[in-house]
Design brief:
The chain is of the alpha/beta class. It contains 11 helices and 9 strands. The protein has helices at about 5-15, 20-30, 45-60, 80-90, 100-110, 150-160, 185-190, 200-205, 220-235, 235-240, 245-265; strands at about 70-75, 90-95, 120, 135-140, 160-170, 175, 210-215, 270, 270-275. The strands form 2 sheets. A 7-stranded mixed sheet has the order 3-2-1-4-5-9-7, with helices on both faces. Strand 1 (about 70-75), helix 4 and strand 2 form a beta-alpha-beta unit. Helix 9 (about 220-235) packs antiparallel against helix 11 (about 245-265). The chain is globular.
Length: about 280
């Protein structure tokens, strides 16, 4: 098994597990399971996460029309897809490797009356099952880090993105001056040996025929978000033990601590990157 296939399979098995599903849905933020913009400070996780979605949408809204086709890579529970479909009337295709998350996505989209605008597909973003130039906007939140072949992801994005189309995404990254070896506990956690960076993703985009439109560095919010999630877990620990194993919760508390520590020490970065196909 290749390292790329291994990382995909490990991520899929993890997010399909009952423990992970219960944790991300009830602790992390429900519809949106990504890092939030905590502006103003102290707001709930759900509100901060929705701030991220709204900020990203503003960057590409010129391409968000009722006739537009959007692809969400690593869509999770589909919160962004429902926001985009409801706000702009565009059609969103959600590609996600976890069938468990996809089932929740379909159910929530149906209950929201948005099923006709949202298509959910089981799959991974290293091999996109779409024709060339199929989408006006490609969107992703905190998912590309799970790929063991990030150049292939960018090549696939460029292939299925239309001319003048937008690629907007967020991702936890390593900082430009991160010392070697300090992120090993995080690499072990996500079963990979590296993270991307602002410069690295810029290079991949250029090599794939895309130009950089915006880079918004919001690294300050990464440790704040992980701390908020950890605090939420600790406060609700006894209640969560009814549906989530103690072993999983203990591992999560430790793992979140690594992200918080790395963020506070300046080893990690996070933000919104926006590219356009030339």
């Amino acid at each position: 098994m290749s390292s790329q296939a291994s990382s995909i399979d490990k991520a899929k098995n993890y997010y399909n597990s009952s423990d992970a599903d219960e944790f991300y849905f009830h602790v992390w933020g429900g519809e949106d399971i990504h890092i939030g913009l905590y502006d103003p400070p102290g707001i709930p996780i759900r509100q901060a996460s929705r701030n991220t979605v709204s900020k990203m949408a503003k960057l590409v809204e010129a391409n968000l029309k009722p006739a537009s086709k959007v692809l969400d890579l690593g869509a999770g529970y589909g919160g962004a897809a429902r926001y985009l479909a409801k706000t702009y009337g565009c059609h969103v295709t959600c590609l996600n490797l976890s069938e468990v998350e996809n089932d929740r996505n379909r159910d929530m989209s149906q209950k929201a009356g948005l099923s006709e605008l949202i298509t959910v597909i089981d799959g991974n973003f290293e091999n996109l099952p779409f024709e060339d130039s199929s989408f006006d906007v490609i969107w992703s939140e905190d998912a590309i880090l799970h790929s063991g072949n990030k150049p292939k992801v960018f090549q696939e994005v460029s292939r299925v993105l239309s001319q003048k189309g937008d690629f907007v995404f967020t991702d936890p990254m390593q900082s430009q001056n991160c010392p070697e070896g300090v992120l090993q506990p995080i690499y072990d956690r996500i079963h990979l040996d590296s993270l991307g960076s602002f410069d690295y993703y810029g290079e991949l985009a250029k090599e794939s025929g895309m130009t950089q439109s915006a880079t918004l560095d919001y690294s300050i919010y990464l440790p704040i978000h992980y701390q908020s999630v950890r605090d939420n877990l600790v406060v609700n620990r006894n209640k969560l033990l009814k549906n989530i194993s103690e072993e999983f919760l203990n591992r999560m508390i430790t793992g979140l601590g690594h992200w918080i520590d790395g963020g506070n020490k300046g080893y990690l970065a996070w933000g919104i990157l926006h590219f356009r196909k030339s």
